[in-house]
């Protein structure tokens, strides 16, 4: 038997909710909506990049914790039902992660995290348009889009299409035009200023 939602869920209720199917969900207007399963390349890139960033944060003594596949509570008005995104990688403030370790609640983005990384799949418009607006509205300082399969629209990654990383950085509540990285371009990140990775090295994590 699968659990059935009979009333809109709050974010906290959603985190504790389980329909028994083993599927992954996001919260849309108080209703859990199932997500499609990622392919193997997509999943490998997320896992390896998250692990790399976690080690980098420790070695560089950065105040962040990288975790994959975590729910992020989106901004809603008082009269709106709650929403969430299950982000591929969430960059938490170390202080917030330590706070969560001190209680039994699910680990999630209850408050706006410093950074979010999304790896593009076939529904690329979500990453380049919908999620961009959501994370900007939420106040996520840095939003990184990893398009290793060059699935995005030409207006975002150019023509001919090629694997591209786009980094949006918040300035006065708005994202600046995205910085584009391809091939041997070294990634320039506010959150990870001493990162030595190139775009190609990140794309190689999917193989």
UniProtKB/TrEMBL annotation:
What CDD domains has UniProt attached to this entry?
Answer: DUF820-like
Tell me yes or no: is Nuclease among this UniProt entry's keywords: yes
Asked whether the UniProt record includes Hydrolase among its keywords, one would answer yes
Task: Look up the coiled coil feature and give its residue ranges.
Answer: none
Q: Which UniProt keywords apply?
A: Endonuclease, Hydrolase, Nuclease
Name all Putative restriction endonuclease domain ranges. Answer: 11-199
Name one molecular function that GO assigns to this entry: endonuclease activity
Instruction: List, alphabetically, the Pfam families matched.
Output: Uma2
The protein, known as? Uma2 family endonuclease
Source species taxonomy:
Bacteria, Bacillati, Cyanobacteriota, Cyanophyceae, Oscillatoriophycideae
């Amino acid at each position: 038997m699968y659990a059935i939602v009979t009333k809109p869920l709050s974010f906290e209720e959603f985190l504790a909710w389980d329909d028994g199917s083993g599927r992954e969900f996001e919260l849309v207007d108080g209703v859990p909506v199932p997500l499609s399963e990622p392919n193997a390349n997509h999943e490998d890139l997320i896992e390896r990049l998250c692990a790399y960033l976690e080690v980098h944060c420790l070695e560089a003594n950065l105040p962040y914790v990288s975790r994959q596949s975590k729910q992020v509570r989106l901004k809603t008005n008082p009269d709106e039902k709650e929403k969430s995104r299950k982000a591929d990688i969430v960059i938490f403030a170390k202080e917030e992660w330590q706070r969560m370790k001190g209680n039994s609640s699910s680990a999630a983005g209850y408050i706006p995290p410093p950074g979010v990384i999304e790896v593009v799949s076939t529904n690329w418009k979500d990453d380049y348009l919908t999620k961009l607006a959501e994370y900007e509205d939420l106040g996520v300082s840095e939003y990184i889009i990893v398009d290793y399969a060059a699935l995005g629209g030409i207006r975002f990654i150019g023509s001919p299409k090629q694997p591209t990383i786009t980094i949006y950085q918040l300035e006065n509540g708005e994202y600046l035009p995205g910085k584009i990285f391809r091939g041997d371009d070294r990634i320039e990140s506010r959150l990870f200023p001493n990162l030595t990775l190139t775009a190609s090295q990140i794309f190689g994590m999917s193989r």
